[in-house]
Structure of Glycerol-3-phosphate dehydrogenase [NAD(P)+]:
Amino acid sequence: MAEIAVIGAGKWGQALHFALSQKQECFITSRTKRDIKNFVSLEKALECQHLVIAIPAQEIREWLKNNFIYTKGQKILVAAKGIEATTGEFLNEIYSDYVPEKNIGFISGPSFAAEVIQGLPCALVLNSTSKKVYDKFKPFFPDFIKVYYSSDVTGAEIAGAYKNVLAIASGICDGLHLGNNARASLISRGLVEMQRFGKKFGAKKSSFIGLSGAGDLFLTASSTLSRNYRVGLGLAKGEKLENILKELGEVAEGVKTAEAIYKLSSEHFIYSPIAREVKLILDGKPPKESLKDLISD
Ligand SMILES: NC(=O)C1=CN([C@@H]2O[C@H](COP(=O)(O)OP(=O)(O)OC[C@H]3O[C@@H](n4cnc5c(N)ncnc54)[C@H](O)[C@@H]3O)[C@@H](O)[C@H]2O)C=CC1
Ligand SMILES: O=C(CO)COP(=O)(O)O
């Protein structure tokens, strides 16, 4: 029996499959059959003792409900970055109905799939309340990926999800040609904003200044390799969200996560001005107006 399988063969699932195939056989599965080495059925993948699930945040509740059978005490790694828009629940809350906390971990950190699949160097954080999950998965990773451990699941999750919203904001800023000064201000204020949001949910400050927060934010908010950043560029040009997403053809988690953060910030009275303006722009507010509102007191 193979030890490890990736579930979800999108960009990130395929990149993780490539990485995890360097030292051992790694299976991969998805809802549509793909021409990838070691592609197997879901049933076969679920027989593995170690699973990496790369299904987007907004889809995972339904997927777990309809497909997931947890009977073998498998160890699970969650690769998605997002907060469920309909409920405002974090991924660890959704998964807690299916997998015991001691057997689950969450990946965070700056890691464009397009670079990982070329074997370029990368550093990730494996976040779990149980270090045993890290100890189990770490040996599976190839030499080009350095994997750190953190127990701050909430901090990593919030950082990974929030940076997607800030990447949209940064794309808007660059799309409006506001300059490097404006983008640097936006990113640094965004870092403070996500930290403030995280504090409300018990996240550790250190997660936001490390790889999971600043690392992933700096990456995503300054590169056209980021889908979320590209959504921002499109919005700044006045393109319709629907058309931007159609053209993208891949998930941009920041879109729905902006809704989730807006909801949670309203319920918990958290000051989240950048995420709020991103949500309003996604709902149709002209980006230039948002900017005025952001810089005026
Ligand atoms: N692409 C990247 O560089 C990185 C992506 N991530 C995160 O990983 C997650 C997945 O992203 P990508 O693979 O890049 O997106 P993608 O858009 O390339 O692929 C998404 C995959 O999820 C599958 N999927 C969607 N709905 C499904 C459902 N209801 N049931 C079963 N499968 C379903 C799709 O078939 C597709 O294979 C996202 O949360 C993203 O934020 C995290 C780090 C890096
Ligand atoms: O999370 C990512 C890199 O760490 C990928 O970001 P995008 O989904 O914006 O492409």
In short: Residues 62 and 84 are 11 Å apart (CA to CA). Strands lie at 4-7, 26-29, 50-53, 75-78, 104-108, 122-127, 145-150.
